[in-house]
Write a structure and sequence with these properties.
It contains five helices and five strands; from the N terminus they run αβββαβαβαα. The model has no long low-confidence stretch (mean pLDDT 95).
Length: 173
């Protein structure tokens, strides 16, 4: 029996093999919706159909930390990508998941961002993810190892963090 994911991806895989340019896609996010004079809050709308997500500034840089900060959103992106990758690959491999939780924690020294530690890099110094899953009893350990290897290979956000692309920013005034 063909898995749900295999059925959903079979035509895509064939088209992408035939015309590789069709596999190129874009993700996006746009801010707005909060007056720009508020230094501690904003909104970001992920994707073309996503709801606006309120964000705030972390207390470590002077904000009230009353909403997820951008670092939390980055951790959420990694957790969501790992979770969805695990679900997709498990379905393809025929691994029945009974429970799944992905926890991500980023650690950073904000002195770099505040400009008070010139030797401290701006950004996360460490990001750790912890996956807790329960598969149906009797799932072969080799199949779970195959699941892990495939997820580590195909989780887009994790791979992007491991080998970041060049970032280009433009300012329009």
């Amino acid at each position: 029996m063909t898995s749900l994911v295999a059925r959903a991806q079979s035509d895509l895989r064939a088209r992408y093999k035939e015309i590789p340019d069709l596999a190129c896609t874009h993700s996006q996010a746009v801010t707005g919706g909060v007056h720009p004079t508020d230094p501690f809050h904003g909104q970001v709308r992920p994707g073309p159909h996503g709801p606006a997500i309120a964000y705030g500034t972390h207390a470590a840089v002077g904000g009230p930390y009353d909403a997820p900060c951008p670092g939390d959103l980055m951790c959420a992106a990694l957790a969501a990508c790992m979770d969805s990758s695990i679900r997709l690959v498990a379905n393809l491999l025929g691994v029945e998941l009974l429970a799944l939780e992905v926890r991500v924690q980023g650690t950073l020294d904000v002195r770099g961002a505040l400009g008070i530690g010139k030797d401290v890099p701006v950004g996360f110094q460490a990001v750790a993810s912890h996956v807790r899953l329960k598969a149906r009893d009797g799932t072969p350990p080799e199949q779970l190892a195959q699941l892990r290897a495939a997820v580590e290979r195909c989780c887009v956000v994790a791979r992007t963090l491991q080998a970041p692309p060049a970032l280009h920013t433009t300012f329009e005034t």
